[in-house]
């Protein structure tokens, strides 16, 4: 399954015409040294929404923030300029496209090079400089999906021997943790093809989706790191789910969004280690995102015209739901179909313009509703904090 093929299944769009007032979030200080633990901002409640249309403004963009943009290679640029600040060359296979490349604090990137036959996972600052190999697999093993810990000081990494259905051998699949402060690496589970979702280092909990050859999610696993041997608690998905698992920035909650073009959409969430407390949210979007520093899930829905092809639809609602308080705010207007990302500090939404194949973005400042357009000449891999 190709990276772009799966992305096309959920691709689109957002053109936003509404003024929004949202509680501002605390900025995080930039850093160019190796990752160190930092506390996650506390959740904030959804604020009121102002009536009328957003005021266009060139001051929406900030050179403090930027993007990781993918074509063949990856490049880092600021919001205000397309000048390339640094580049790196991630190697891909299998489900690596589901990896979280940028750390939650927006200061570092992780990537495989190579991804096959003795894979090496690297970490480097988004402002450039030398990279740091942090995990090397055996010659018969290949790199797969990975994600960052919520404090940006560690990584959860999946590897396997590429022996899925019909390979004629035995599947070897492993889940590893990487402590970037000490350099320690540890194999914490074996036996499944995982897509890592979160690592709460304080609670000593790792979460990962379980997948297979078709790319559908077949389950959700929680690894308890408090005592060895590490216990793995599994929750099966029946039927299997063509969706994505994503963790809140503090790794306290996980969402599962599922959407099939022309079919029904679904959205559920639960506390990271308690999938039995799963709650379902009314949802008609194609995907959903956590707003950094909050317990809010955001998405766009109400797509028009009826039966429209993804990438060309216009949504009429921009919705947030706070899982901690139950507060739900629906913003009426004319939007696209996919919320791409949020700025690292949660102060702005990053959206894709309709019909642009996701290369034309709009940055929406949530506190004021001001918007401006940005062309990125590639696919948005993540958002970063430059200084």
Overall mean confidence score, pLDDT: 84
Number of strands: 27
* Shape assignment: globular
How far is the first residue's CA from the last residue's CA?
Answer: 37 Å
Count of individual helical segments: 1
CATH top level assignment: Mainly Beta
Which topology does CATH recognise?
Neuraminidase
Q: DSSP strand (E) fraction? A: 35-45%
The helix/strand series, from N terminus to C terminus, equals: HEEEEEEEEEEEEEEEEEEEEEEEEEEE
List keywords for this structure.
387 residues; mainly beta; Neuraminidase; four-stranded antiparallel β-sheet; 2% helix; 43% strand
Summarize the structure in short.
The protein has 387 residues and is mainly beta. Helix content is 2%, strand content 43%. The protein is globular and about 50 Å long.
Descriptive notes:
49% of the residues are buried. The chain is mostly beta strands and 387 residues long. The protein has a single domain (3-385), classed as Neuraminidase. It has one helix and 27 strands. β2 and β3 (86-88) form a beta hairpin. A four-stranded antiparallel beta sheet has the order 3-2-1-27, with no helix packed on it. The protein has a four-stranded antiparallel beta sheet with strand order 7-8-9-10, with no helix packed on it. The protein has a four-stranded antiparallel beta sheet with strand order 11-12-13-14, with no helix packed on it. 2% of the residues lie in helices and 43% in strands. The radius of gyration is 20 Å and the shape is globular.
Topology of this protein?
Elements (H helix, E strand, L loop, with lengths): L2 H6 L56 E6 L3 E5 L7 E3 L19 E5 L7 E6 L6 E5 L5 E7 L5 E7 L12 E7 L5 E6 L2 E8 L4 E7 L5 E8 L6 E11 L1 E5 L5 E7 L5 E7 L7 E3 L7 E2 L5 E9 L9 E9 L5 E8 L3 E4 L5 E5 L7 E6 L5 E5 L3 E7 L2
């Amino acid at each position: 399954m190709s990276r772009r093929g799966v992305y096309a299944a959920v691709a689109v769009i957002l053109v936003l015409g509404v003024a929004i007032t949202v509680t501002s979030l605390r900025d995080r200080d930039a850093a160019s040294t190796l990752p160190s633990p930092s506390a996650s901002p506390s959740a904030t409640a959804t604020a009121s929404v102002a009536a009328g249309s957003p005021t266009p403004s060139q001051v929406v963009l900030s050179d403090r923030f930027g993007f990781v943009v993918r074509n063949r290679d990856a490049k880092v640029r600021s919001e205000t300029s397309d000048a390339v600040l640094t580049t790196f060359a991630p190697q891909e296979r299998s489900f690596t496209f589901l990896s979280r490349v940028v750390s939650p604090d927006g200061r570092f990137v992780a990537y495989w090079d190579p991804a096959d036959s003795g894979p090496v996972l690297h970490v480097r600052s988004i402002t450039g400089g030398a990279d740091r190999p942090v995990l090397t697999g055996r010659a018969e093993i290949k790199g797969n999906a990975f994600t960052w810990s919520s404090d940006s000081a560690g990584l959860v990494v999946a590897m396997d021997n590429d022996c899925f259905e019909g390979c004629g051998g035995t599947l070897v699949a492993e889940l590893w943790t990487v402590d970037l402060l000490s350099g320690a690496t540890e194999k914490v589970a074996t036996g499944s093809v995982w897509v890592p979702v979160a690592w709460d280092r304080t609670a000593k909990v790792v979460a990962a989706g379980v997948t297979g050859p078709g790319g559908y999610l077949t389950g959700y696993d929680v690894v308890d790191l408090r005592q060895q041997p590490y216990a793995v608690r599994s929750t099966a998905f029946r039927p299997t789910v063509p969706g994505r698992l994503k963790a809140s920035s503090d790794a306290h909650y996980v969402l599962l969004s599922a959407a099939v073009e022309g079919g029904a959409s679904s959205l559920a969430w639960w506390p990271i280690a308690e999938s039995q407390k799963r709650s379902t949210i009314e949802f008609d979007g194609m995907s959903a995102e956590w707003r950094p520093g909050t317990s809010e899930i955001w998405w766009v829905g109400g797509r028009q015209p009826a039966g429209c092809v993804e990438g060309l639809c216009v949504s009429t609602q921009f919705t947030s739901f706070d899982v901690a308080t139950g507060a739900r705010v629906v913003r009426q207007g004319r939007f696209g179909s996919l919320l791409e990302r949020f700025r690292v500090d949660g102060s702005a939404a990053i959206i894709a313009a309709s019909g642009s194949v996701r290369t034309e973005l709009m940055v929406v400042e949530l506190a004021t509703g001001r918007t401006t357009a940005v062309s990125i000449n590639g696919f948005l891999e993540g958002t970063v904090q430059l200084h």
